[in-house]
Amino acid sequence: MQLDPKFHVSLQHRVRFTRDAFHPDNSAFAAICDGEPNRRMIAFVDSGVHALHPDLGDQLANYLGARSRLGEVVPDLKLVEVVAGGEDAKNSIDVCEQVLAATDRCGIDRKSFVLAIGGGAVLDAVGFGAALAHRGVRLIRMPTTTLAMDDAAMGVKNGLNKFGKKNFVGTFSVPWAVVADERFLTTLSDGQFLCGFSEAVKIACLKDPALFDQIESDSKQIVQRDLAVSMPIIIRSARLHLDHIATGGDPFELQEARPLDFGHWAAHKLESMSGYEISHGDAVSIGIALDCEYAVGTKILARRDTDRVIACLRALGLPTWHPLLAQTDQLVRGLEEFREHLGGRFNITMLRSIGDSVELHQMDHKIVAASVRALAP
Length: 377
Ligand SMILES: NC(=O)c1ccc[n+]([C@@H]2O[C@H](COP(=O)([O-])OP(=O)(O)OC[C@H]3O[C@@H](n4cnc5c(N)ncnc54)[C@H](O)[C@@H]3O)[C@@H](O)[C@H]2O)c1
Ligand SMILES: [Zn+2]
Hints:
Helices cover 46% and strands 13% of the residues. It has 15 helices and ten strands. The strands form three sheets. Strands 1-8-5-4-2-3 form a six-stranded parallel beta sheet. A two-stranded antiparallel sheet has the order 6-7. A two-stranded antiparallel ribbon has the order 9-10.
């Protein structure tokens, strides 16, 4: 007897970009979580966000009380918990345990909500806890960094770092919704604000030459943190990530190609080699520069295109070099770790031109080393 049924599950992403999400006149957030009564919510706020937005819990409670039926069912419960912000959130199981304990204590059922407010790391760590509690409660992500808005919050996965390896632990899990409030971007440091544009450059290089031109020509205003110029780029990048996940045919990464991870094999390795001192956004910028040099070294990409990409990253104030790159033997171990993480055949996405890419199934370590030397200051 052999039984091999195939079945499909229909999933939906809900993404909203807004400003002042908890203003009583703003209906976007309430519309996402209202519908049926007797649902509960617990929010987890990134400690870095909490420090600069200490009244967020009150704003959320007032908003839900005024606009949502949710507010009526949680008056005695602590609505907001602060969790470790930054990569620390992913380097231990603590945030996940905090989410599990709170979902238990607050009676969060599978139709109730866990709200994660923070950078990509907090979204990943809280999302992991939310995916485990009752085998998955509804997760609303509220990204508060550039990178979380233009990439991380759109993903359908979560993760923790373990055994010195980035995202070794995690699950695929589609969030209930994403509500991005651009007001959060105003409290980021310049470095945090800019590093998220590396993911916008990445997706533009892969899929949208016009977006690349736009980032290139708007780089000065982006560096000056002009949100009128920056937000359309952030939203376009988010949309391209979202479209790839929703319509690319492989949301749970069962196939070999992982184009959204262009530049990421070296990025992930550099992050772990630095003890997560290098931010993900900065590491991705270096990883993109390295792979573009590699593509020139293997005659896949024209020198002119690589120079443009590297100049664009630098114009955004992003790094294209780190002294750890010089530890090439250790760096190239990241290639095998990347293959293990993907499973199956070795597969690395490389640019063929700005807007077009190709999959490689092997990389020459000597050309990687030469590419490192080409980037050295
Ligand atoms: N799940 C996915 O699909 C996916 C995709 C891309 C990236 N990621 C992950 O996202 C993480 C990187 O996220 P990130 O770049 O947002 O960095 P981050 O989450 O590490 O946050 C950086 C710092 O900014 C602080 N912060 C957050 N919001 C703030 C605000 N509004 N004002 C002031 N400070 C604030 C945080 O406390 C932290 O110290 C990485 O772990 C990466 O692996 C996940
Ligand atoms: Zn990334």
